[in-house]
Amino acid sequence: MSLDLTSTSQQIQNMAQNISARENDRIKRIQTAINAAKNFDLKSYESVRRNLAELGQTTILIEDSPSKSFTTPNLPENLIVVAVDGSHIDVDRHLAAQCFLINIGSCLNKYGDDSYAELQTKPTLYASDENMVIKSADNRTQRIQGSVLGIKRHIEELKSLSNLITQLPIETPCSVFVDGTLFPIGMSIFPQFVRDQFYDEIKETMNLLFQESSHRKMSVSAYISYPGHSEIVETLRLLICDEISGAGVCKGCIEGVKDRDVFYELLEPGQRSPVFVRNATPGHTNISTDIAFFYLNTGNEIARIEMPYWSVEHNDIIELAHGSSLDQSKRGPGYPTVLIEAHEQAIVTTADRESFIELVELSLNSNGITTPTSQKNISKRVRNI
Prior knowledge:
- The chain folds into two domains: about 80-345, Nucleotidyltransferase, domain 5 (2-Layer Sandwich); about 350-385, no CATH class.
- A hairpin with a 5-residue loop joins strand 5 and strand 6.
- It has helices spanning about 5-40, 40-55, 130, 145-165, 190-215, 230-240, 240-245, 260-265, 315-330, 335-345, 350-365, 375-385; strands spanning about 60, 80-90, 100-110, 115-125, 135, 140-145, 175-180, 220-225, 275-280, 290-295, 300-310.
- By secondary structure, the chain is of the alpha+beta class.
- It contains twelve helices and eleven strands.
């Protein structure tokens, strides 16, 4: 039986009416946050931040007022822009062979003299026992599938990016991109030995990127379209919330406001916010968790650009990330064209997945291995004929 659209449409209409009724209140909360950004007291905030850091909490380092904006910088005439993206085929319990595949796509665009473009795709199959699990020193294991595989794919994207950079000419500035967050999120739900291995791999890769950045002009950026973060809004709340200051009970003055809501009003097209640094390890810098980020008005949306923490020490690198992010968005449909092309190389379609399964089964059969499957899986295949 198909979806009852008549019943569903009435529920959707009720939802829309409820959202409309709350819109005026949302606009007021956004304006409160904007006013807080414009009246931001750096000295008062730093005092609050230090207290939170001493308690071991993640804090945001802010050295310029959040309302300050920076205009579009000029890009080098000769520039290499690189992006990687990834997709995967997860472990399928209905298959006789337990395996997964990670497909990494990349795009390289050279602008200026001798311009050219390179597109690549690299599929890697993981099927051996040692590649299918993460093992601890005391022989505990975690199968690599589902959300764990998603994290592994993200790390493989970073590794691929690092390898690509080492092949680029040192004399030409380069701007490199990944889609989404710079560091994978959601690892806190995994066992400690899984987190440790992932962090070690991230740290090793980021160290390689750091070494490359020491002898070439290079920006490393993670581009987040339509970001849902509220880190700066929560930072503003530290200074204006009555409950936090001890003056009373929180009235939810900026509850539900996103960072993008605030910067949409503070930034003109082409402008970026100040650079903020998220310090997840109070007292010292952690290369695998601490990031720098800024917000950018591309003219189509507010994007969030994340960078390794060391980028804040070099204004020319920040300008390169700013300028190339904006330029690539303009070259594409409001989203970086280099990331679009990398995605096209990485994507695994439904037809690709079906062909992959057929290849696995044919290969097993040709080697004299039967390929039993569940009746549920057979019924799905019959329905698709």
